Amino acid sequence: MIYQPQVYKIKDQAMTPFIDSDEIWQIINTAVPSPERVRVIISKSLNKNRLSLQETAVLLNTTDPELIEEIKQGARTLKEKVYGHRIVLFAPLYIGNNCTNSCAYCGFKATNKSIKRVTLNKKELIDQVTALEDTGQKRLILVYGEHPQYDPEFIAESVKTVYSVKSGNGEIRRVNINAAPQTIEGFRTIKNSAIGTYQVFQETYHPETYQKVHLSGKKKDYDWRLTALDRAQEAGIDDVGIGALFGLYDWRFEVLGLMRHVNHFEAVYNVGPHTISFPRIQNASELDIDKSKLVSDADFVKLVAILRLAVPYTGLILTAREPAYVRDEIMQFGVSQIDGGTNIEMKGYTKEGKGDQDLLSEQFTINDNRTLNEIMDELINSKYIPSFCTACYRLGRTGEHFMEFSVPGFIKRYCTPNALLTLVEYLEDYAPAETKIRGYQLIEEKISDIDDDKYIEKVRDRIEKIKKGERDLYF
Ligand code: SAM
Ligand code: SF4
């Protein structure tokens, strides 16, 4: 079937579709990278400016290894200059894997009769959340298949249950969701359960490929999915995450598709999406895709560095789909969030021992099986500040990435101290002795970077309070 773009309504205005394949290909095909041009583009980004689609395409077309190194160095510098060394941690939790769609790349597809279908009941959900809290998690993303059973009321109910679970000093302070597109009414119901970010990935921005890989079910409708976040906005959910599943179509096209989506958001709502995700296809039960578009490690690293330069104030999420060595490399390029201690098997967090992954219980393979504490150790040893901070969201400071980026001193005043305070909580409540020693050494180093003595006193005062038993302190 040939994709027929539809005119749809946003804020009662007729809109033409914002993805035009011909336009994107024309931009890619006419972008010529010369060393001078690449350098000018990198420095534009380092001067805190967004890149145009044309400029991004020049970087995407760069193949000279030395210039690629300069692009990566640019992303590294931007990360250091603007964001400092913080990484926010979260964990995914699968609520149910029933699904009426058949996405060729997904183990949960309706046509897969061998997958074990599970929907957590309330007790099972509480058990999973308790297990997560007992390792120190504070931020979750709940994941759902697309099925009538997972209607907005069900989703809202599960979010509320997660917030209600308290185990020792543990609690989940931010619940994000990754769920099927809803109507505006449905999104309103979900918003009322106090979700953080609503995330939905377009998978591929290329309409014809989209038709090929979405074989049946509601997800076949490209426009319904593409406009999901507009409906979310209209329902008052202004904190949204976009993403593309890399490996379905040309990766350069998908990067420009993501940027086009960002541009649309900025043009219509004056604010870009909160985060961009860039999952790369992994093995899955009954995986059935054309493997010619799979993305190599080298291209993947390059594309993340380019995304960082192209949209310097949007959060970037890198998941445990990727092996530790890819994650450790890519983190330097300005990733803001990673998952840690991830287990995506249904009811996986209460399973005894790590064991082998069971592809019949999960959507796809993950390649970073480290525990949360192993990840914490790695981050601390590499001088990153692991953060479980939820302050902006709790104080209604939305657009936090934009503020981090554009408000002078924001990171020093809020993000770094808050990251340190959540690290102290982790060290006091969950860390083994060795992690605790190194964690406090890192905290001392990072406190001395704050250049305001009065502020240092305030941070130290809160750290002492946490050591004495207070929790959930933030600026
Ligand atoms: N059912 C919801 C939907 O389709 O929007 C939830 C999505 S799914 C549980 C989360 C994301 O995982 C998908 O949007 C897709 O990008 C990604 N995904 C699916 N199959 C994958 C695979 N084999 N490898 C890596 N990521 C995959
Ligand atoms: Fe269902 Fe989502 Fe998997 Fe598609 S990606 S089959 S919609 S769970």
Query: In the residues, how many domains can be counted?
Result: 3
Shape: globular
Give the percentage of residues in beta strands.
5-15%
Mean pLDDT: 93
The unique ligands bound to this protein are: S-adenosylmethionine, iron/sulfur cluster
CATH third-tier fold name of the largest domain: TIM Barrel
Enumerate the spans where pLDDT stays under 50 for 5 or more consecutive residues. 1-5
How far do the termini sit from each other?
53 Å
| Whole-angstrom Rg | 22 Å
CATH C-level class of the largest domain: Alpha Beta
CATH architecture identity of the largest domain: Alpha-Beta Barrel
Oligomer class: single chain
Structural class estimated from helices and strands: alpha/beta
Q: How many distinct beta strands?
A: 13
The fourth-level CATH homologous superfamily of the largest domain is Aldolase class I
Q: Tell me the strand order in the biggest sheet.
A: 3-4-7-8-9-10-11-12
SSE map:
Elements: E1 8-10, E2 13-15, H1 21-30, H2 35-46, H3 53-60, H4 65-83, E3 86-96, H5 122-133, E4 139-144, H6 152-164, E5 166-167, E6 170-171, E7 174-178, H7 184-191, E8 198-199, H8 207-213, H9 222-226, H10 228-234, E9 240-243, H11 251-269, E10 275-277, H12 297-310, E11 315-318, H13 324-331, E12 337-339, H14 372-381, E13 385-387, H15 391-394, H16 400-406, H17 410-429, H18 433-447, H19 453-467
Parallel strand pairs: 3-4, 3-12, 3-13, 4-7, 7-8, 8-9, 9-10, 10-11, 11-12
Antiparallel strand pairs: 1-2, 5-6
Helix pairs in contact: 1-3, 1-11, 2-4, 3-11, 3-12, 4-12, 6-7, 11-12, 14-18, 17-18, 17-19
The structure holds S-adenosylmethionine (SAM) and iron/sulfur cluster.
